[in-house]
Specification:
There is one protein chain. The chain is of the alpha/beta class. It has six helices and five strands, in the order αβαβαβαβαβα. Helix content is 37%, strand content 13%. Strands 1-5-4-2-3 form a five-stranded parallel beta sheet. The protein is globular.
Amino acid sequence: MKLKIGYQALIQEAIAEIETLPVEKALDLLADTNVVFVDIRDVRELEREGMIPNALHAPRGMLEFWVDPDSPYYKPIFGEGKRLVLYCASAWRSALATQTLQRMGVPNICHLEGGFTAWKKAQLPVAEKAGKSHSG
């Protein structure tokens, strides 16, 4: 089967249309209360590898629904006007997600260059994914 457009072309198109934030500059934003790091990876990736401290986990499959105020799944944090820094493992999913949210009209959004892999390679802070409480 020959596709009309492959994933690499989709990613390159997205990167041409969005802001990519270098890891060094992202670190400077980590303590900024007007910035929300949004981890769009699968929960199993977070449990296995950790995440950027204080990042919001918004699974890629729910992102558009969480962002849209008309959706029954809307999360108010996305409507607070804060700068959003999306990331995934290698910046592929986050490039596509950032492009989509930008098309939806989300302002002040970018994604992390190199993703969480680049963050860890730079030996920047990593937090464990908070697990569900198992009481009983």
